[in-house]
Design goal:
Strand order of the largest sheet: 4-3-2-1-5-8-9-10
Pfam families: 5-FTHF_cyc-lig, RRM_1
Keywords: RNA-binding
Structural class: alpha+beta
CATH class of the largest domain: Alpha Beta
Order of helices and strands: HHHEHEEHHEEEEHEEEHHHEEEHEEHEEE
GO molecular function: RNA binding
Strand content: 15-25%
Protein name: Methenyltetrahydrofolate synthase domain-containing protein
CATH topology of the largest domain: Rossmann fold
């Protein structure tokens, strides 16, 4: 038992985390990487705890298993690979997407499978799975700092596991009945006051320790998707959307279906408009495209410009953003819709659909860089867009 922790009704989430991290270090239970503070802690007996996942019917029946990349869950990743299940691991800090699928080489030995289950193996033997990858997760395995026998969980405080689960709900990868497992040391199983839990907190159905398998029979509902009005609890919402590009795509998609995606501290009307950006009527099609059409077919290459800025051509301050990897099926109006959605409407849009690219002109470099930050990682039509400042700002033909 975790004797160092007083009755937890008097403790905040952070108090509980600190007490558990302190206890693991002081008792000699902590394992690499050390110190365990600020982490999902690794502990003595983690491989033993992980191996008991093979005794769960929900594991035996599962075909696709999502396991977090934390060190104490390495044994669970190995068990999934050894059982020839599809193993999905969240992209670290969700920087480039949601999942990576671990793909061991053909005829992989036990040693290679063990390497695939490590953090380095996740880098060396994985392929990204996009939003349109049609993942169908049958079992979710998450790390915890603390968990109660009722299934109430406390992570390390950054909110990534909760956000990952909510994103999986939003993309249809998990269902309400998809079981969630966590793997901890016995000393991490403590009482947690229910009032500490929020709507976005993920609960668990099974707890595995080196000595026990606990079925929680948790009745508290799991998150039903991304709670946009609370999503900024992870960090400020603009910073969050910048750090986790796939969130921008999910927010865009949910907005298109009519869902309220207003962020905390964002006025609802600002989710739909941007007073500083030109509106659609201000972007008019130029009936005489520039001469440098190249091999683009007429009708697929055209320039749209801000009708209120007739001296645009001669301006020396214009900065251009390159947008590549546009899917063949994408239409210019769909790109324009996304630009309005992210409040990065350009002064001029140079559409080159046949080359799967477009160029966006902005009035200064700062505005262009904000557009790059906003659009980077956005997925349209199944393709993740390539977005960067154009190589040559002097000759955009």
């Amino acid at each position: 038992t975790l004797t160092a922790v007083p009755p937890t009704g008097a403790l905040s989430k952070w108090d509980i985390r600190e007490r558990i991290w302190d206890h693991l270090e002081a008792s000699g239970l902590a394992e690499f990487p050390r110190p365990v503070h600020g982490r999902i802690p690794n502990f003595q007996g983690s491989l033993q705890a992980c191996s008991s996942i093979k005794e769960l019917d929900v594991f035996s029946r599962a075909r696709e298993v999502k396991v977090d990349p934390d060190k104490p869950l390495e044994g669970a990743r190995l068990a999934a690979l050894q059982a020839r299940k599809t193993l999905l691991v969240p992209t670290p800090r969700l920087r480039t997407g949601l999942f990576n699928r671990i793909v061991p080489p053909p005829g992989a030995t036990k040693e290679i499978l063990r390497k695939c289950a490590t953090s380095q193996g996740v880098k060396d033997y994985s392929v990204p799975v996009g939003l349109d990858g049609k993942a169908r997760v049958d079992l979710v395995v998450v790390g915890s700092v603390a968990v109660s026998e009722k299934g109430w969980r406390i992570g390390k405080g950054e909110g990534y596991a909760d956000m990952e689960y909510a994103m999986m709900v939003s993309m249809g990868a998990v269902q309400e009945e998809t079981p969630v497992v966590t793997i901890v040391h016995d000393c991490q199983v403590v009482d947690i006051a229910e009032e500490l839990l929020d709507d976005h907190d993920l609960t668990v159905d099974f707890i595995l320790t080196p000595t026990r398998i606990i079925k929680t029979n948790c009745k508290r509902p799991k998150p039903q998707g991304i709670l946009w009005h609370k999503a900024s609890s992870l960090c400020s919402h603009y910073e969050m959307l910048g750090k986790i590009p796939i969130l921008k795509t999910l927010r865009y998609r949910e907005k298109q279906t009519g869902k309220d995606v207003t962020l905390q501290d964002e006025h609802p009307h600002l989710a739909n408009t941007n007073p500083a950006a030109p509106n659609e009527k201000e972007m008019v099609e130029n009936t005489q495209p520039q001469a440098a059409v190249g091999s683009a077919q007429m009708g697929q290459h055209h320039v749209e410009r801000d009708s209120l800025n007739p001296r645009l051509e001669g301006s020396g301050t214009i900065t251009t953003v390159f947008v590549g990897n546009l899917p063949p099926s994408l239409r210019v109006r769909e790109l324009k819709c996304a630009l309005r959605e992210f409040h990065v409407v350009p002064l001029r849009l140079n559409w080159q659909g046949a080359q799967h690219r477009a160029f966006l002109d902005y009035r200064d470099k700062g505005t262009a860089e904000r557009a790059v930050s906003s659009l980077k990682g956005l997925s349209l039509g199944g393709n993740t867009l390539q977005v960067e400042l154009a190589k040559s700002q002097g000759n955009k033909g």
